[in-house]
Amino acid sequence: MLYAAKIAALxxxxxxxxxxxxxxxxxxxxxxxxxxxxxIALAALILGGYRLWPGVALGAFLANSWTGIPIYxxxxxxxxxxxxxxxxxxxxxxxxxxxxxxxxxxxxLGLVGLAGLLSTMVSAxxxxxxxxxxxxxxxxxxxSVWRTxxxxxxxxxxxxxPAILVAVTHWPFRRARDRPLEAAAVGLLxxxxxxxxxxxxxxxxxxxxxxxxxxxxxFRQLGAxxxxxxxxxxxxxxxxxxxxxxxxxxxxxxxxxxQTYVGVASITALVLAAVVTERRRVEDTLRGIANxxxxxxxPHPPDIPGVEVxxxxxxxxERQLVGGDFYDWFPNDDGSWAVAIGDVAGxxxxxAATAALARYTLRAAAMHERRPxxxxxxxxxxxxxxxxxxxxxxxxxxxxxxxxxxxxxxxxVAGHPAPLVLRAAGAVEPVGRGILLGASESVDxxxxxxxxxxxxALVFYTDGLTDAYAPGHPVSPAELNATVRSSAGRSAQxxxxxxxxxVLHDDGAKPRDDILVLAIRLPARTRxxxxxxxxxxxxxxxxxxx
Length: 546
What we know:
The protein is an alpha+beta fold. The chain folds into 3 domains: 1-169, Arp2/3 complex 21 kDa subunit ARPC3; 172-287, no CATH class; 299-541, Phosphatase 2c, domain 1 (4-Layer Sandwich), CATH 3.60.40.10. It has 14 helices and 15 strands. A 6-stranded mixed sheet has the order 10-9-12-13-4-15, with helices on one face. The longest helix has 47 residues, at 251-297.
C-alpha cells in the first residue's frame, strides 16, 4: 500500500510539472525548452530507489497522452523519459559514488556530466525519434528539436534535481534558521535583482552573481539551490513573454538561452558551495588533529601529595592550529619528579613535530640518566639528527620532595628563560642558563641546584610571556621579578593568575607568541605533621586552548 502511494504521488507530481513545462512548447506540442520533470524523476530515483520507476513512467505517459500524438509515439517518449531517469541514477550511484547532499565537487561534476549531459541524451534521442516516426516533425528539423529537448531536460537535472536533493538531505536547514534575517535578505534581493534583469532589454545578467556568491559562502548548498530556483522562477516567465535580455529571438531560442543561463548559474553556485564545504571539512579535520597533538604537548599535570600545580597556556592567534610550546611532568624511578618546559622556534606542524620529539626524547632519556644536563645533551643529539634546522629552548628539572614539606631541585637550562624560585618571604631567584638546542652538535650545559622549603614556589615560563607585546612593550626581567615577588603567599593558581594578569593588558592588542606559565608551590607548613600526605589536586587553566 505504501509503495503504491509513493508511485501515485510521484506520478502526480511528474504529471503536474510536465503540464507546466508543456505550456511552453512552441515548435511541437511535445517538445519544450523547459522540462522540470527530468529533475523530479532523477531526484526521486536517487532518494527512493530504482523501484519507483513506474511512477516516472505513469506520469510521463499521462502527460504526453494528451498532446494529440499517436499512442506509439507516446509510449516511445514514455520509455525515453523513464530510461533517462534510470540511467542518470545508475550512472551517478554506481559510477560516480554520488552523494545527494552535493557537498563534494565530484558530486556536482557527476551530476552535470553523467546526468545533465549524458543521461538526457537517452530521452532526447528516443523522444525525437518517436516524433519523427509519427510524422510530427520533419527529418530536417530533427537536429533543432533534439537540441531543444536535450537542453530542456538538462535544465531539469541542473536546477530542479539539486533543489530536491538539497532540501531532503539538508533539512532542517540550520544555517538558514540561525540567520533568518540574512536568509530573508538574500531571497528578497535575489527576487528584486532578477526582476530588474529580466524586465530590461539591456544585458544585466551579471548582476545576479554577487548575490549568488553571497548565498553560497553563507548558506552553501541551500543558498545555491534557493537562489537558482528564484532566478529560474523569474527568468522563465519573463523570457516566455519576450521580456529581458533574451527577447527578440524565437520562443524556443529565447527560452533555451534563459534555461542555459540559469543552468550555468546553478553549476557555478553548486561548485562554489561544494568547494566551501570541502574546505571547511578539511579545516575541521586539521583542527581536530591539531587539538589532539596540542593536548599531547600540554598534558594535565599529575596530582602530587603536598604540592600545588597550575598551568596557563594561551595561543597567540585564533587561526594558528599548533605551535612549538610544550611542557611535561612524569615520575622517575627513584621517586623524584621530572618537569620540562620548552619552546621550539617557529609555528605549525614542523614546530609541533619537533616539540613532540623533544617531549618523548626527554622521557626516554630520563629512564637511563639522572643528570638534567646530560638528558638535554641527548635531546640535542636527537634534534640535530631527526629535525635538522630546528632549534629549541628547554628547561628540565628533577625535583625531589621530602616529608618535611620541602625539596631539592636539580636543573639544566638550554637557552630557555631561567625558571624563578619564589621564596615564601618574597625573594625571587633566577636559576640556570645555557645554550639552546639544535644549533650546535656540542652543548656545554651545567646542572644547577636549589633547595626548596615549605611555602616556596617555582615559576617556569616561555619567552612568549615577556615578548607578548614586543617590540612595543617588552617585559623586562626586573618587571617580571617584581610581579612574581608580589605573588608571594598566593596559591600556585594565584601565582599564575597574578603573572598573566599583570603582563597581559586589555587594550585589544594580540600577543605575538604563545604564552605558557607553570607554577609549582610547596604549601606552607601547618600544625598537622601529616599535612604533607594530603593530596592537593593540580589545576589547569587553559584559556584559549585549541
